[in-house]
């Protein structure tokens, strides 16, 4: 009986399949342990913390928010480039220097969740007085998702922007206006035939630079502004070195085809540049009384 019992017990491993499966599982666990030990040794040698370990993982692009290439001749790219133009004019323009977009070379956009849409633009501009073309401009324009109108956030650079030097012309114009016996003034620039008198060109440019501030501030993803007309401009008395002018300008929104009237006061000298000190949206039925919507700068 004792020998029979040993024989029966000895046959159990041959009948039951679990011991074989258990042997394979042990092999897998041993291999995993070896790999974990190897990985732990590597991390220990490199002294990597959790952040550094995560940095070694391949970067994953979220396919839900891809960068979209834009047709450079279509409205979204044109609108973004126009906002960059307004920004450049207000920060770098003068009565002798006014930029217009010349060519859009590349454009793309990305939708940022709960933030807005950011546009990436590569373009060139042309200075209107000298007709010089400045290439290699890049801009990022962010239209934020807000309940009320907010100015697009612009980051824009042009490599050759400073090659257009108008300092001498600006200083000559400044001294010319400063020593006029009567304050400068003008109406309907350009006239009904589209002509701008030579002596009014600096005031037309200065109005365009001031209007660029308004158009930049008022732009969104449903607008496309340009200045259509200077209804009136007159020089104001100034107690400092700045020349001050009072303007009523007509802005054209090319999307809605609406003509919008704005009153603004602009200060300028060659050293400090152009500054819009006040701008008021005028009601549609009159241009004599500014509306209650005032924008102090």
Describe the SSE topology.
Blueprint: H1 2-15, H2 18-46, H3 50-55, E1 68-69, H4 75-92, E2 99-112, E3 116-127, E4 133-144, E5 153-158, H5 167-178, E6 185-189, H6 201-218, E7 225-236, E8 243-253, E9 258-269, E10 273-281, E11 294-296
Antiparallel strand pairs: 1-2, 2-3, 3-4, 4-5, 6-7, 7-8, 8-9, 9-10, 10-11
Q: Structural class, from helix and strand content?
A: alpha+beta
Q: Note poorly predicted spans.
A: 1-61, 289-296
**Portion of residues within helices:** 25-40%
Strands ordered across the widest β-sheet:
6-7-8-9-10-11
What Rg is obtained from the alpha carbons, in whole angstroms? 34 Å
Secondary structure tally, helices: 6
User: What's the multimeric state?
Assistant: single chain
Indicate the proportion of strand residues: 25-35%
Q: How would you describe the shape?
A: globular
> How would a crystallographer describe the biggest sheet?
6 strands, antiparallel
- Number of E strands: 11
Average the pLDDT over all residues and give the rounded result.
Answer: 81
